[in-house]
Amino acid sequence: MAQDVVSEAEVPAARTVGTLRRLSAGFGTEAQVFVVLAVLLLVFAVAYPSSFATAGNVVNVGRQAGILLVVAVAQMFALVVGGFDLSVAANMAFASTVSALAMTHHHGVVVSAALGVASGAVVGLVNGIAISGFGVSPFVVTLGMLTFLGGFANQLAGGASIAGLPPSFIEYWGSGSWGVIPSAVGIAAVVMVLAWLVLSRLRIGLYIFAVGGGREACRLAGIRVVGVEIAAYTMCGTLAALAGLMLSARVGIGQAGLGQGYDLLSIAAAVIGGVAIGGGTGRLSGVLLGVVFFSVLTTGLNIAAVTEFAQQMIIGVVLVATVLLARTGSLTQRLLPLVHLLTARRHRPGDPA
Fold first, then answer.
1. Averaged confidence pLDDT in the chain
2. Contacts for 314-320 with beta carbons within 8 Å, 24 or more apart?
3. Rounded distance, CA 210 to CA 82, Å?
4. Where are the bilayer-spanning segments (predicted)?
5. What DSSP designation does 162 have?
6. What's the angle, vertex CA 232, arms to CA 228 and CA 238, rounded to 5?
7. What is the DSSP string of 200-263?
8. What is the pLDDT averaged over residues 78-92?
9. Mean pLDDT of 33-45
10. Among 63, 216, 239, 333, which residue's beta carbon has the most beta carbons within 10 A?
């Protein structure tokens, strides 16, 4: 009889716990991001049909998303290996300043772009050496690099914007198109393919995931952990610089303040797409969804005439919510035994109502 009573009490508790397990497992998945994105698209399309749901706006979102996608993929390398990079935005500005100065001194678009990307690779290399080689916190290193690059770029540019960039650079890297494809989208697509090859088909990519999932285990297995982490940060710096050139071409200038906000936005886009903050897991398809989500959100808010300060508040809330949702699964798992106990007590026969 007692066994029957316990079984009856366990039924609703088990149902509640099972529901919580399913809900907690769903947070952060690409499917849920896709659903939220679809709802966001529908809301803006219905509210502003003449301005949001247009071919011109689709192209605009594509250009915006292309730049953010390259930065988010850069950030993904740092996140997956178990760190992060707060200096990506400053790196973008630094690369844009270096390349713009080279162009205005008649070094040619190809050479100038190569100098800009190389400068970003050096920044990433220095970050990696300081973080992995010397064991300094990623927060301290990349925050310090952010401050240093801001001052260095301003010193190089004399505190002014660098205009007069070649039309071919602006056309090919920023505001132009590759046939029917916006140039920013084309560059981002190439970056996605290359990143997929590195992370999925090359040994260094597999090592990046492995080190992020268990640094000590990798060291014991004979993997050169320091070299892997330095490589990840170097790739991050290289792609951040590439994004800086894209943004510079889009706005038509090189500037020490270019790219502000891309640091945290790139982290948010990667995390909301399923890249783990602690490292070891992440998918490029999820990063793409996260980037499209934020690009659609900011474009819709601009069309809705939401002020820049209000947009920053909204994006800040979304960023915090993203991190909380990324941790919801582990938090829910800890609460499940308590929920099970409380639900069982509530449904136990003979208890007071």
1. 85
2. 315/265, 315/268, 318/268, 318/272, 318/294, 319/264, 319/265, 319/267, 319/268
3. 10
4. 31-55, 67-89, 109-129, 136-157, 177-199, 230-253, 259-277, 284-303, 309-326
5. B
6. 140
7. HHSHHHHHHHHHHH-HHHHHHTT--HHHHHHHHHHHHHHHHHHHHHHHHHHHTSB-TTTTTTHH
8. 97
9. 87
10. 239
Q: What 3 state SS string does 303-344 have?
A: HCCCCHHHHHHHHHHHHHHHHHHHHHHHHHHHHHHHHHHHHH
Length of the chain: 353
CA nearest neighbour of 118 among 242, 252, 202: 242
Rounded (10°) angle between helices 284-303 and 183-201: 150
DSSP structure string for 42-64:
HHHHHH-TTTTSSHHHHHHHHHH
Res 135: pLDDT: 94
Q: What percent of the chain has pLDDT over 70?
A: 83
Q: Which two tokens stand for residue 152?
A: 């260095």
pTM to 2 decimals?
0.83
Neighbours of 259 (CB within 10 A): 26
How far apart, in whole angstroms, are the C-alpha atoms of residue 313 and residue 68?
Answer: 19
In this prediction, residue 20 carries a pLDDT of: 45
For 9-37, what is the mean pLDDT? 57
Is the confidence at residue 23, as pLDDT, over 60? Answer: no
pLDDT at 276: 87
Q: Which residues have a Cβ under 8 Å from the Cβ of 293 and sit 6 or more positions away?
A: 33, 36, 37, 40, 269, 272
Q: Which pLDDT belongs to residue 25?
A: 46
Angstrom distance (rounded) from CA 241 to CA 147:
16
Residue 267 has pLDDT above 50, yes or no: yes
Name the β-bridge partners of 181: 178
Q: How confident is the model at residue 291 (pLDDT cuts 50, 70, 90)?
A: very high
